[in-house]
Design a protein that fits this description.
This protein is of the alpha+beta class. It has three helices and two strands, in the order H-H-H-E-E. Strand 1 and strand 2 form a beta hairpin. The longest helix has 13 residues. The chain starts with a helix and ends with a strand.
């Protein structure tokens, strides 16, 4: 199985910026998480059916 470190980083950044995840305080400020996620570089992920999904966040 291929690993997708950029996708994993995006998920971690999104979770860390979520107040619900941290319970009381954020690990990453929302602006920093947005900068990590919306870097303009294509992201790719493997769907459960084996297809590769690609998307870019700006």
């Amino acid at each position: 199985m291929k690993k997708h470190p950029r996708l994993a980083g995006a998920v971690i950044a999104a979770l860390a910026a979520s107040p619900a995840f941290s319970g009381q305080e954020q690990f990453l400020p929302s602006e920093k998480a947005a900068a990590i996620l919306a870097d303009g570089v294509p992201w790719s992920a493997l769907a459960p059916d084996g297809k590769t999904l690609k998307f870019t966040l700006k």
